[in-house]
Design brief:
By secondary structure, the protein is an alpha/beta fold. The protein has helices spanning about 15-25, 45-55, 75-95, 110-130; strands spanning about 5-10, 35-40, 60-65, 100-105.
Length: about 140
């Protein structure tokens, strides 16, 4: 039986979450593997949130935000980018495969891109197999 990955997604309400909504409205097909958490801005996602999701057994974590220059809070996505560069090292230090984390810039008009990213990330995680960390989901 094929492993169906459990993905936690932190999605900027203005862009990536709106893109996910558009994907649904356009009836774009993508695996129902992601549990989206709407956040005001990708800059509000703390590295601890990602590490906690992985520690509790999520197979992958996605953070989605606005494209550079489009952040409703001016520089939230730049903050996200800087923090997530450091986060990749923390993920490795915590014993997780860094391929289990993904950062994407998806606008509210990119429903098709949202679906493509989710399909691609799901396939990558399925190939990696289940998260070896079994936490209290």
């Amino acid at each position: 039986m094929t492993h169906t990955p459990n993905i936690i997604g932190f999605a900027c309400q203005w862009c990536t979450y709106a893109g996910a909504d558009l994907a649904g409205n356009l009836r774009c097909k993508y695996p129902p593997t992601v549990k989206l958490i709407k956040v005001p801005c990708s800059g509000r996602v703390e590295p601890e949130h990602v590490l906690e999701a992985l520690a509790r057994g999520a197979d992958g974590v996605l953070i989605g935000g606005c494209h550079y220059g489009d952040c409703h809070y001016k520089e939230g996505n730049y903050k996200t980018s800087r923090r997530m560069t450091v986060l990749k090292k923390l993920i490795e230090d915590a014993g997780h495969d860094p391929r289990r984390f993904r950062l994407e810039w998806i606008s509210g008009a990119e429903g098709k891109k949202f679906a493509e990213v989710m399909d691609e990330f799901t396939k990558e995680l399925a190939e990696l197999g289940p998260n070896p960390v079994k936490g209290g989901n």
